[in-house]
């Protein structure tokens, strides 16, 4: 890269986004260290036009994606997949068999085309797309000829959906989500609340192509690499998230995911509630339950207490309360504040009340004395219910699905007739897997999918500075189907022959021939 140093103000945006970490701010000016591949990421974010490309010399160019990195000797490209070994661009890593990753994806299907003969992990790419995929392999199952086409596909129109297990309020639905990357960067938005979880949407084409797109892509990739990311929700909470671990909301670690809403909890554990107290209230930001009024309480012949609670009544024993950061995701900070009124005639001295969250993390036990509810140590029966409730709640964690589509030009690596491939996928004549993991294919046009990232072998997803994510993709079908859709018959090789030449070592550090 050529640098006009006089224009540099030392803002550090280039240092933040450089995929190889070779851009650095030294004494308030940018310095480009050895290993620059001219990926132009710095040019995209620099507000002063400091960088330009000299485009000189005979450094080999990687043709695996539109970035076309010029990779110096003994160095990697921006995606960290391709390597310059003595002037030849090689794919680091190797193609994987399905059997090697089956424990990760948890597959149990045994139908002929449900699992690929080979995975796209380590296979290399098809780019610029009109060529046949790197590996088109044939094999036989139960006397039927099977074809698997594998590639590592750059997916620009993609994003991630995070499921965050918590009852705590994160913010109003639709609010923007930001990360701090040399400033406040918009990377997604808060979606709907689901059963005991909040959904966050990160990336997507409009975000990735915006001025903050590179920062959004980097945050998503950092999540995929197991890093903890701090998100700020507009007019909402600050959350610290790591895939597979419990979320932190405003500094509080959320340990338990509720077993159900307040009403469901009441129905599930009604026999325990019957013995726990004369009245039980389950505080919940979705539906708060009042046991003696609830159908389950009436079914057990629980006497109706004289306690009424706040909120908009949905049906008997089910109330909608305002959402907040208090008990159970409501605005209630002192549990007794949920009480609307007490009928003294039906709440004699000695009457007991248990108020709990759906997770049992917070609970309080009260007894009526001299016309007032006074807090006491819970009885053994009350604690028995709380312990059962806690044990029934799973550990909270952050999980995600990757959302993308392979309906674009990458289909040309499979067939000369892309619409036939799309139709065959929706007719389930062609099975798509992502690194061996079975995705959900959306109905309708195109080939849009959701896949659980936990089922994809760690380290199999890459990021390029377009920005786009590179995922391993497999298309598996019968040979007859491959012929029907206009597949690249001339590129078929027996899978056993491919494995002999490619999978000669078990080390993932092997080099596989890539595009030059």
Q: How is this structure best described in words?
A:
By secondary structure, the protein is an alpha+beta fold. It folds into three domains: 91 residues, 2-Layer Sandwich (Alpha-Beta Plaits); 236 residues, no CATH class; 130 residues, no CATH class. The protein has twelve helices and 33 strands. It has an eleven-stranded antiparallel beta sheet. A seven-stranded mixed beta sheet has the order 20-21-18-17-23-24-25, with helices on one face.
Please, what is the oligomeric state?
single chain
The strand count comes to 33
Relative helix content: 10-25%
- Number of individual domains: 3
Helix run count: 12
As a whole number of angstroms, the C-alpha radius of gyration is 29 Å
User: Distance between the terminal alpha carbons, to the nearest Å?
Assistant: 21 Å
Overall, the morphology is globular
Average pLDDT metric: 91
User: Order of strands in the sheet with the most strands?
Assistant: 16-15-14-13-10-11-12-9-26-29-28
Tell me the structural class: alpha+beta
List the uncertain runs. Answer: 505-516
Biggest sheet record: 11 strands, antiparallel
Strand content of the residues, in percent? Answer: 25-35%
Task: Set down the secondary structure blueprint.
Layout: E1 2-3, H1 13-17, E2 23-26, E3 29-32, H2 41-45, E4 51-52, E5 82-85, E6 88-92, H3 98-105, E7 135-141, E8 144-155, E9 159-165, E10 176-180, E11 184-194, E12 197-203, H4 205-208, H5 213-224, E13 229-233, E14 238-241, E15 248-249, E16 252-253, H6 262-268, H7 270-276, E17 279-283, E18 288-290, H8 295-299, E19 307-309, E20 312-315, E21 318-320, E22 339-342, E23 352-357, E24 363-369, E25 372-376, H9 380-391, E26 398-405, H10 418-426, E27 430-434, E28 440-441, E29 448-452, E30 462-464, E31 468-478, H11 479-484, E32 492-494, H12 495-502, E33 511-513
Parallel strand pairs: 7-32, 17-23
Antiparallel strand pairs: 1-4, 2-3, 5-6, 6-33, 7-8, 8-31, 9-12, 9-26, 10-11, 10-13, 11-12, 13-14, 14-15, 15-16, 17-18, 18-21, 19-22, 20-21, 23-24, 24-25, 26-29, 27-31, 28-29, 30-31
Helix pairs in contact: 7-9
């Amino acid at each position: 890269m050529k640098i006009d140093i006089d224009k540099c103000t030392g803002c550090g945006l280039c240092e933040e986004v450089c995929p190889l970490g070779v851009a650095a701010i030294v004494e308030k000016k940018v310095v480009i260290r050895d290993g620059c591949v001219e990926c132009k990421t710095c040019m995209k974010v620099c507000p002063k036009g400091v960088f330009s490309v000299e485009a000189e010399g005979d450094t080999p160019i990687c043709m695996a994606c539109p970035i076309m990195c010029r990779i110096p000797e003994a160095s990697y490209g921006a995606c960290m997949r391709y390597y310059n070994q003595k002037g030849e661009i090689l794919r680091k890593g190797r193609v994987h068999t399905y059997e090697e990753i089956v424990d990760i994806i948890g597959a149990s299907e045994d139908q002929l085309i449900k699992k690929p003969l080979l995975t796209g992990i380590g296979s290399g790419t098809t780019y610029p797309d009109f060529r046949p995929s790197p590996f088109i392999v044939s094999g036989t199952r139960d006397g039927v000829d099977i074809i698997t086409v594998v590639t590592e596909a750059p997916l620009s129109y993609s994003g991630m959906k995070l499921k965050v297990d918590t009852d705590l309020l994160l913010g109003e639905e639709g609010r923007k989500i930001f990360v701090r990357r040399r400033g406040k960067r918009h990377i997604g938005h808060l979606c709907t609340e689901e059963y005991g979880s909040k959904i966050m949407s990160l990336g997507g084409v409009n975000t990735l192509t915006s001025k903050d797109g590179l920062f959004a892509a980097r945050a998503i990739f950092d999540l995929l690499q197991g890093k903890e990311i701090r998100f700020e929700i507009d007019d909402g909470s600050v959350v610290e998230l790591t895939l597979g671990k419990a979320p932190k909301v405003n500094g509080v670690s959320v340990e338990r995911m509720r077993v159900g809403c307040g009403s469901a909890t009441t129905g599930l554990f009604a026999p325990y509630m019957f013995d726990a107290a004369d009245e039980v209230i389950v505080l919940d930001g979705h539906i708060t339950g009042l046991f003696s009024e609830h159908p389950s309480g009436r079914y057990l012949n629980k006497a109706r207490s004289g306690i009424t609670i706040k909120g908009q009544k949905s049906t008997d024993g089910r109330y909608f309360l305002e959402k907040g950061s208090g008990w159970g995701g409501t605005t209630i900070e002192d549990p007794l504040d949920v009480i609307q009124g007490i009928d003294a005639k039906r709440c004699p001295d000695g009457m007991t009340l248990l108020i709990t969250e759906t997770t049992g993390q917070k609970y309080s036990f009260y007894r009526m004395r001299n016309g007032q509810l006074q807090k006491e140590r819970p009885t053994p029966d009350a604690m028995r219910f709380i312990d059962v409730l806690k044990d029934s709640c799973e550990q909270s964690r952050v999980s995600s699905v990757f959302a993308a589509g392979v309906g674009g030009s990458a289909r040309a690596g499979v067939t000369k007739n892309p619409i036939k491939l799309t139709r065959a996928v929706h007719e389930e004549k062609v099975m798509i897997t992502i690194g061996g993991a079975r995705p959900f294919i959306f109905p309708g046009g195109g080939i849009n999918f959701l896949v659980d990232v936990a089922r994809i072998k760690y380290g199999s997803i890459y990021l390029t500075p377009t920005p786009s994510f590179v995922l391993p993709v497999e298309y598996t079908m019968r040979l007859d189907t491959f012929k029907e859709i206009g597949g690249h018959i001339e590129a078929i090789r027996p899978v056993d022959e491919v494995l002999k030449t490619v999978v000669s070592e078990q080390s993932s550090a092997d080099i596989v021939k890539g595009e030059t």
